[in-house]
Each structure stands twice: as structure tokens, then as C-alpha cells.
Design a protein that fits this description.
Length: about 80
């Protein structure tokens, strides 16, 4: 699986429909848990980019597999 490209907190907030402040708080918790790192954004000095760590990528892989299983379970038998 290809790693997820780095993304800004503002982009995360827009994609999931929450405030930047809420997204920032979540990113800070993920960073404290070792699941993401922050890096300088070459396109915007005041914005940082969020990148998954190897552990974060492993968690994403597990979550995607579980999502696929649940989707299959809920749609099994539908035509």
C-alpha cells in the first residue's frame, strides 16, 4: 500500500468536516501517541504538514481492513 501523502491540518479539517482547532487537537494526540509527525510546509510557512509514522500507517492498514470487512458484512446479500 502506498503511504498517505502529508496533508495540512486545515485540509484534514475540511475533509472530515470539523474545525481546524478540533483537527489540531486530534493531530496533537496522534503525535503524542507516535502515530503522526509534523513537518514544515514548503508552501506555507505558518502551516505544518501531518505525516503518518510507520506505526500510524500500520494502524491505517488495520482500520481499512476492518472497514472493508464491515462493509462486506452489511452489504452481503444486497443486490
Amino acid at each position: 500500500m502506498d503511504p498517505i501523502l502529508p496533508i495540512s491540518v486545515a485540509q484534514i479539517a475540511r475533509r472530515i468536516g470539523v474545525s481546524r482547532q478540533s483537527a489540531r487537537q486530534t493531530v496533537q494526540k496522534l503525535e503524542a501517541g507516535g502515530l503522526v509527525t509534523l513537518q514544515a510546509n514548503p508552501d506555507h510557512r505558518r502551516s505544518q504538514l501531518v505525516r503518518l509514522t510507520d506505526d500510524g500507517q500500520a494502524v491505517m492498514t488495520i482500520l481499512r481492513e476492518r472497514q472493508a470487512q464491515l462493509t462486506h458484512r452489511f452489504t452481503d446479500g444486497m443486490s
